[in-house]
Amino acid sequence: MACTSTRPSPGLPLDVQNTARTTELEARLAALEAENARLRTINAALIERVESGHSLRSDGYAAFQHSVVLAEQVRERTDALNQAMTELKSSNHLLSDARLRAETAHQHLIDAIESISDAFVLFDRDQRIVLFNSRFKELWSRTRARVASGTRLSEIKRLAESSGLIVEEQRGRGEDHMVYRLMNGRWVQVSERPTREGGLVILYTDITELKQSETQRREQALAQNSRLLQRAVDNLSQGMAMVNAEGALELWNHRFLELCGLAPIEAHRPFAEVMSESELPLLTPDSRDEYGAPLRELEQRLFDGRMLEVRTHPLPTGGFVNTFTDITERFRQAEALSESERWVRLITDHVPALIAYLNADLIYEFTNKVYEEWYHWPHGGLLGQSLREVHSEEHWRRLEPYMERALSGESVTFEMAETNFIGQQRYMLRSYVPNRQASGEVVGLFVLIRDITERRRTSEALHQAYQNLELRVRERTAELTSLNRQLVGEIDERTRVESRLREAKQEADQANLSKTKFLAAVSHDLLQPLNAARLFTGALLEQRHNEASHGLIRNVSNSLEDVENLLGTLVDISKLDAGVIKPDISSFAVGDLLDNLAAEFRQLTISEGLVLAFVPSSACVRSDIQLLARILRNLLTNAIRYTAKGRILLGCRRRGHALSIEVWDTGMGIADDKLTEIFQEFKRGEGQRHQDRVLGLGLAIVDKIVRMLGHRIRVKSQLGRGSMFAIEVPLTKRASVLRQAPEVLPMAVECLQGARVWVLDNDAAICAGMRTLLEAWGCEVVTALSEDDLARQVDNYHAEADVLIADYHLDDGRDGVQAVTDINARRAEPLPALMVTANYSNELKQHLRELGHTLLHKPVKPMKLKTTLSHLLMQGRR
Q1: Taking a C-beta distance cutoff of 8 angstroms, is the pair 802, 820 a contact?
Q2: Nearest-CA neighbor of 324 among 295, 289, 298?
């Protein structure tokens, strides 16, 4: 364990002090005994010398006196020895008492260190263990290490590391404390204090509860900070997403989900996976542009027209933060400003004068094309440069006085001769106009320079002409006449050009009108015989024939249907190009449309040996239901046409604020380099069925309708595996067009038996076909080519009848609506009317709906006609 010194201890234990004192007393006693023995030896030697030897002195008194002195010295030494012995006995008694007190104090010390809650260990000056309590011993209970008295501190540290007793080490709040997490999960704080004799006392304090409390407070503070951070992030006007170093999404706000068109997501999902569900590209600090340079920001236009700015910011600890800003308004303002600047540039570049703008420091901020060409500078080459640096020193000295006057607020105009870049000397009229703020401060100069060389030369020529005025007047008159003729010629030329432009515009308008009329003619005249042929074949199919004849009739019907589809496709392309078709936008439940399409194409897929899978949807969308149906029919038809085996899937999925209506197939697939060509006109893929029946216009029509509706189309395909076409339609909360429950009709043939039907059409073939088909169904039919013809046959419209079938386009400028109105005006009870037309306009459809008439488009399909007539007859009988 690492240790840190603290304040010194009060000293060694009492038994150690008593032992030292006893040793000192024993040493003094031994010294006194040795001195006493030496004195006794000297005394004995002197007495022996006196008694046994002869003295050279003859005086006996002197010898006696000397012995007396020796005896006195012996007595004194003996008294001193006795005193020392007394003191020794007293010291021994004190030593015994001290030893008893020391043992008692030692026991008290042991009891004291055992009673404290900390682990305690005492080291001597050699850093060997002298004393420790049971709590210190318990620290090592889960290890194999054995710690006893005499163990060195370095050995204890080594055992703590090798045995795994210490799991984690931290610096405490003070510099003299260390904190350790032990293998049992407890936390201890280590305090070291040196003793006065050089030893060391170490205390191990259990601070587990304190650490847990601090951890809890820290987690609570962190949670509070997280909540505050989330609230602050949610209140940002920008979208924000924070990604950790592992690439998982850690923090985001609702604005991020809204701008990216994402549904609510879970935390810690991979950011790349989250962004794959958005139309925005993935941007990280590792992103690179097409040149390999780091890409830290990008702008993306969404399908709804909004503009987003995405920025990425790397974090120092790993990970990054992305911001998403709606810059639609700023982008529009920038576009408007750019457009304004473009117009300013366009105007100034075509003005025959040098135009520039200098700021207060005489730095070029704007120059027009003429200015740059005059000084032979590249486009934009003068911007940001100082006028002093661009021009020569001599030129600047000539301009400086005028510049100073202009900067002081004075508008200055003066003439100055200059030499252009090809060495010609020209006279320039310069004007400096100060740009003042509301405070009057001049912040820049408008510079206008005009080449007045010709005018100057004319002036000089006029000055010289004073000496020969008549000649000069004739010459000048000739020049003016020539100039006048030139101007007249230019005016005539401009007049002729304008006349040609007007003629070209009239021709274009006439061509557009002719195209529109041609479309109307195709819609009516070309489909008239086709409609009649369809009616005849329908009538033939209702009759009984042998198998060979029935097959031939079916083939004729199929061929007519192919012709009808091809003509309809060509007409649709022409109408889309001419802008005749206008969308009728409304909100409706997409399930109404998809259910009908699934029922319509299910039998067709079965007949082709395929399976149609359909996933219903309850979403509501905003679009033109008829045009959207046309798009999906073309996509489903294409899927069947290019799929030899497998299945077709029709379903939806939500993508942000849009609904993606998708058609999947398991067909041949499309090569990547062909994906952009498939929407072009007359482009047909390989591997399709019925090669002779396809013009390659289906996807071209889809593309034109999608553009007109403002929707988005997506294509994914793999060769040999199939394709996916998706139309993204805006979602809405509720439908404005409510779904009507289908009416249960009786058998069509039973409804038509004996029905009295009037047919009004200006085409005899169609009348004949209608008669043949309706009579085959058991109807009583009256056909007429005009209103007068019908009136003669039905007693001036008073005869009994059940339903009236009228063509919308009649002769003499009349239409079916007018005819039906006049006929019903003469009857006691109005007849239900079925209007037949080749006009697909929304205006006519709405008009007939308001009048309560039923509408069928040419060419009329027999089964559709039968169902519609049955419906009208059932309504009339109610």
Answers
A1: no
A2: 298
Residue 579's Cβ-count burial label (10 Å; 0-12, 13-18, 19+) is: exposed
Q: Do the Cβ atoms of 242 and 319 come closer than 8 Å?
A: yes
* 3-state secondary structure labels for all residues of 114-136: HHCCCEEEEECCCCEEEEECHHH
Is the per-residue pLDDT at 743 higher than 50? no
Distance CA 158, CA 1 (A): 8
Task: Give me the mean pLDDT over the 425-439 stretch.
Answer: 86
Q: Up-side HSE of residue 694: CA atoms within 13 Å toward CB? A: 21
Predicted confidence (pLDDT) per residue in 480-511, tens digit: 888 888 888 888 887 887 787 777 767 766 66
**What's the Cα-to-Cα distance from 863 to each of 630, 761, 801, 857, 866, rounded to whole Å?**
20, 20, 22, 13, 5
Q: Is the pLDDT of residue 747 over 50?
A: no
Report the 10 Å Cβ neighbour count for 187: 20
Q: 198: helix, coil or strand?
A: coil
Question: What radius of gyration, in Å, describes the C-alpha atoms of the chain?
Answer: 58
The phi-psi region of residue 656 (left if phi > 0; otherwise alpha if psi is between -120 and 50; otherwise beta) is left
Strand order, beta sheet including 364-367: 364-367, 354-359, 442-451, 425-436, 412-419
Residues with Cβ within 8 Å of 559's Cβ and at least 6 positions away in sequence, in order, are none
Indicate the pairing of strand 586-589 with strand 620-623. antiparallel
Within 10 angstroms of residue 647's Cβ, the number of other Cβ atoms is: 15
Burial 364-386 (b: 16+ CB within 10 A, else e): bebbbbbbbebbebeeeebeeee
Identify the CA nearest to 73 among candidates 96, 43, 38, 97.
Answer: 43
Measured over the CA atoms of residue 632, residue 633, residue 634 and residue 636, the dihedral's sign is positive
H/E stretch holding 251? strand 249-252
Taking 80 as the threshold, does the pLDDT of residue 115 lie above it? no
Rounded to the nearest integer, the mean pLDDT of the chain is: 77
In terms of Cα–Cα distance, which of 626, 806, 623 is closest to 727?
A: 623
For the chain, the distance separating the N- and C-terminal CA atoms, rounded to the nearest angstrom, is 103
Quote the DSSP letter at residue 711.
-
- Which whole number is the average pLDDT over 183-204? 83
196-210 per-residue burial string, b: 16 or more CB within 10 A, e: under 16: eeebbbbbbbbbeee
Q: Which two tokens stand for residue 379?
A: 């486009």
Structure tokens at 330: 């700023």
Percent of the chain past pLDDT 90, that is, above it, reads 5
List, in sequence order, every beta strand (DSSP E) within 437-523.
442-451
Highest mean pLDDT among 3-12, 175-184, 311-320: 311-320
Q: What is the tens place of the pLDDT at every residue in 802-816?
A: 899 998 888 888 888
**Given a cut of 80, is residue 778 above it in pLDDT?**
yes
Q: Backbone phi, then psi, for 303, in 5-degree steps?
A: -65, -25
Peptide bond into 859 cis (omega under 30): yes
Partners of residue 121 on adjacent β-strands: 132, 202
Q: What span, in angstroms and rounded, lies between the C-alpha atoms of 642 and 790?
A: 50
| Number of C-beta neighbours around residue 515 at 10 A | 15
Helix axes 469-521, 453-465, angle to 10 degrees: 150
Whether the per-residue pLDDT at 59 is higher than 80: the answer is: no
- State how far the Cα of 412 lies from the Cα of 406, in Å rounded to an integer: 6
Half-sphere CA count of 92, side-chain side, radius 13 A: 7
CA dihedral 408, 414, 420, 423 (to 10 degrees): -130
> How many Å apart are CA 685 and CA 664, to the nearest integer?
16
7: pLDDT strictly greater than 50? no
CB 337 within 8 A of CB 350: no
Q: Are 603 and 678 in contact (CB under 8 A)?
A: no
> Is the pLDDT at 87 greater than 50, yes or no?
yes
